[in-house]
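Co-fold these.
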Amino acid sequence: MFQLYEKIPYLLARQPNALKQTIQTIAARNYTNTVPNRILEKARRSKLGAAAKGPSVGSDERPKLEQAEYSQAERDYKYIYPDFLPNPVYYFRDKIREKLERIDMINRRKQITIPEFYVGSIMAVTVSDPYAPGKSNRFVGICIRRDEYGLKHSFTLRNVIDGLGVEIMYDLYNPTIRSIEVLKLEKRLDDNLSYLQDSPPEYSTIPFDFEPVKLLPGMKVPVNMTKVPLKNKPWRHAWDRKALRGVILPEIKRYQHEEYMNSSSDFKPYEKWDLMKNYRETIHDDDHREIVQDIKKFESEITDKQEIVTAAKKLVRTRHIPKETPSNEKK
Amino acid sequence: MSRMKIVDDSKLARDGMAYKRAPKIIHVYNKKRIGSIGDTVLLAVKGQKQKAIIVGCKNYNRKGGIPNFDTNNCVLVDDQNTPLGSRVTVPIPASLRSHPNCTKLIALATNFV
Amino acid sequence: MLKLNIQSARAILSSLTHANVVKTGLVNDTNLVTSYYLTNKLDTQSHNFSINYQQVAYYRRNNFTRPFNWVKRRGGGYDENINTDNKEFLNQVLLDKYSESPLKEAPWKKGEYNANSINKRLGLLGIKLGSIPQWTKDGKKIHTTLIQVLDNHVIDYIPPEVLIERNNIYNSNAKRTKNGNLGMAIVGAISSDPRNYTPQYLDIFKNAGVPPKRKLTKFMVSQNAVVQPGTPLYAAHFRVGDYIDVGSHTIGFGFQGVMKRWGFKGGPRSHGSTKFHRKRGTIGSGRDRRPIKGMKMAGRMGSKWRQLMGLKIWRINNKYNILYIHGPVIPGPTHSYVRITDSCLPKNRERFTAESHPPFPTYYPDQNQAIAEEFFDEELHKYTDPTITFETFEVKKITKRDGAKIARIKS
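Predicted complex below.
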């Protein structure tokens, strides 16, 4: 039913007859046994069934939200703690579940320091293993991708050992993880580096005794502009059909043909004019304020790790990855 | 009939990888009939049948902490699970340490991931 | 505009379900009365006879006809011309009415657990919130679904003697009442505004003294587990570590083809196949000259009643009344209604003894003694604990028999 509520104000203004059709189509889906999210929030807040109701997110116990504008440090929380952002699809969301998830995540973060990292930065993870000789196991690699929201958040590392590519996925809130270190903090041109599987091994080999690189305060989070050449086919995925920036395709005429590129499912030229795209992929400001309040409270509570918190605030972060510098080779 | 890479030091492994046909899985000794890390397997290598143990998979594992590799790897063994070669050339997953099939195999490995 | 006294408004609300409100002459402004319900549609004669409580249970969808005693739920509604001052005033009166103690009669006698006979408690009506992962102390990952128990009240109880009479009249199955040993308890979830419902539906809640509920279910209950109508139910009704059965409707997909509904292979994409890409093959023909019954074909997919049995409760949150239940695959979309009962499997029943059993007949909160905010299972890892290190873990020697067992020969 969530789709209906989004469409109502638009349809009432423009096409009142179309509203009937959408109701009929959604009614055919038989979500009859559910409570709409809007009514559920109202029922949690209402005082009618006072006897059996525990306090909830929407009740009077809810702390008042600060209406003041964000500082730059608070605005950067979505880069430092991207796992705190909920799933932007409204259908999967529930406010109380998100709140309980956040409590668990903060309790876990009080036990170990989980640093800020991006796709493309070089990391080391040690996991406790009952059968290993030192009861622990260490792995070093590039962060290839970050998946999922909340407690389910995970990241994968990749490295080449003895000429064989190895990838390991870790859950961020797995309690068997002893420490997560960031050896080199940097970004890449793409958000998903899975194409390193089909590139030559020297682009993803990292020695296990990699020395950590420190960033000075006031510096920007650096962007690594290297472009990776791909091997010839067969590939694991059709990389030539995805809009990737950090890839050099092998020189075959077919790839430069426009119709071949346009036939892919990832080719979406209309997204330029999609006004609702940003709305769909982000959450509302009021929801974000609740998250910011929880994080601020958490940062004030860890007194022994204040140096890490203050050092992280001094870095400069931007969403936009810079465009390539125009090459001088062309004449 | 998935094609495997034999990660072993024995003579049959070297000849089998250089042979015109790649080694393939004929049978999985398992109730599910789908092989994963630590399962014993029957291979067709160089025109003859040989048992092997799977040591690494391509398959993307959602469990967490278990590695997946760029190739499907296996090690040749005989009927008593003793490996034919004297060395394993690639890293193997650390979770095999607790696996009952791989007690003799682990002594040959140098790298654990 | 006219403003109401408190006394006269209470008189209206107390007699919500009677037809004579207008005749009493307490109020001259009839618009106010019609804002509660439409007076013309009242039928005090017939609707009290036998009410069908099966609002959630399974029914065959394709040829569904409502039973004759089905109560119409939605009706009444607001009068749009009502004044805003009066509207706020009426809201306040509603709160005053339902903030009183819901128990109308003296408290009933609480039953006790009897190890020798049937002990069948009532269940809860929850709402599915989604799934999150948890970890055990061994380092294993578990997926759990969260189910909230929102505003659950016992609403009615029908003793077994009445049920036996009904069985005789309607020729329904007597096995469901275990031959007259079980009664029927009705439980409702999510209390809401009474002005949205028909007076026939409001009559159900008259004895319980609680606001009308959005959803109702029934539970078959043994006679020592009877709970008085009007008592609230909590998530602490269940214990951590016990097993439960869960039932709800699956996600509805509408009319779907054979490939999505049954996972058929379809036809080839090319190689000269025309109009045969996502179809099934033959339905089958032979001596009978008809397809066999239950043949897999295209049709309505999903939205069927499904049950999962023997799911473990890992964790209970008493502040928000939330159960953490094993498994990510509880049927239904998010915010769907879920029916929860004690598991009927022997692995759950064997756990109960006369000394240790779940709160019987339900959990009654003590005002003097507050319970903990959260209950955890013994095997579950708490996030406030330090990281798992396996320092006390002892590695067992792996022993496996090599080769075949040699038979001893008698000497």
